[in-house]
Write a structure and sequence with these properties.
The protein has 125 residues and is an alpha+beta fold. The chain has a single domain, classed as 2,3-Dihydroxybiphenyl 1,2-Dioxygenase, domain 1 (Roll). Strands 1, 2, 3, 4, 5, 6, 7, 8 and 9 form a nine-stranded mixed sheet that branches. Strand 7 and strand 8 form a beta hairpin. The radius of gyration is 15 Å and the shape is globular.
C-alpha cells in the first residue's frame, strides 16, 4: 500500500452557515460545490475540504473531522488493511472510476477513509 497524502477532509457541524462563511471568507477558499447541507471547498493543489450540516445524511458517523488518505489502488490497499484486521464500514463507494473512497475505523475508534482519485496531481504519471 502506498499512502500519498491526505487529499480530503470532511466535518459535520451544527454551525453550517458560519463554517461555510469561515472557509470561504476568512480562509479564502473557493466554494466549488454548494447544496443546502454540504459545501465543498478546493485547495490550490486540488485537495478538498467538505462541510456537512447536522441535517446531512452523507456521513452520519462524523463525530469528528474525517481525513481521506490518497492511494493509487483502493482495492489492493483495502484488501491489505483487511488482512491486518482493519474494520471497513461498507463497500468501496463512488459511482465512477474517477473518485472512490472506503471508510474504515482506526484503533482510536474514529473513522477515516482511503481515497482513490487518479486525477489528483500526486497520482498523475
Amino acid at each position: 500500500m502506498n499512502i500519498k497524502g491526505i487529499i480530503w477532509v470532511g466535518t459535520q457541524t451544527t454551525n453550517f452557515s458560519k463554517m461555510k462563511d469561515f472557509f470561504q471568507n476568512v480562509l479564502g477558499l473557493p466554494l466549488v460545490a454548494d447544496t443546502p447541507n454540504n459545501g465543498t471547498f478546493e485547495m490550490p493543489n486540488g485537495d478538498k475540504f467538505e462541510v456537512f450540516s447536522a441535517q446531512s445524511d452523507a456521513d452520519m458517523f462524523m463525530s469528528h473531522p474525517v481525513a481521506g488518505f490518497l492511494v493509487d489502488d483502493i482495492v489492493s490497499a483495502r484488501a491489505e488493511m483487511e488482512q491486518m484486521g482493519v474494520e471497513f464500514l461498507g463497500p468501496i463507494q463512488g459511482e465512477t472510476d474517477e473518485y472512490k473512497w472506503s471508510e474504515f475505523r482506526a484503533p482510536d475508534g474514529f473513522v477515516y477513509e482511503l481515497t482513490y482519485y487518479p486525477g489528483h496531481p500526486l497520482n498523475r504519471k
